[in-house]
Amino acid sequence: MATLLTRNIESMTEMREPHKVLKKSGGEPVAVLKNSALVGYFVPAEAISSAQHRTASIEEIRHSLKSRKSITQPVLDYLKDTPIGWSYYCDS
């Protein structure tokens, strides 16, 4: 059984009336189940941050990767045998 990432749970049948699901959830995400299996999440617009999001620049991404390299090194070592390899993204 999957771990649910919200305390609000509804069935596919209840999703026939999404306005009721929204009202009942209080603006929080809802896990949608079918036959007791997780199908997905219904996320109301109000649950999404209204803050402006931006895309990170390639320099910011490289800096982040380099600053976390000691943490991610075991994964990087494991991925050395992949066709492209993560060193492509970390070297520069």
Strand content: 15-25%
Alpha carbon gyration radius: 20 Å
Overall pLDDT metric: 85
Order of helices and strands: EHEEHHH
Number of domains: 2
State the end-to-end CA separation: 43 Å
Strand order of the largest sheet: 1-2-3
Largest sheet: 3 strands, mixed
Helical residue percent? 25-40%
Counting DSSP E segments of at least 2 residues, the number of strands comes to 3
Number of helices: 4
Low-confidence stretches: none
Please state the structural category.
Answer: alpha+beta
Properties at a glance:
elongated; 35% helix; single chain; alpha+beta; 2 domains; three-stranded mixed beta sheet; 92 residues
Question: Can you walk me through this structure?
Answer:
The chain is an alpha+beta fold. The protein has two domains: 9-47, no CATH class; 58-90, no CATH class. The protein has helices spanning 18-25, 58-67, 69-78, 87-90, and strands at residues 9-11, 30-34, 37-42. It has a three-stranded mixed β-sheet. α1 (18-25) links the parallel β1 and β2 (30-34). The termini are far apart.
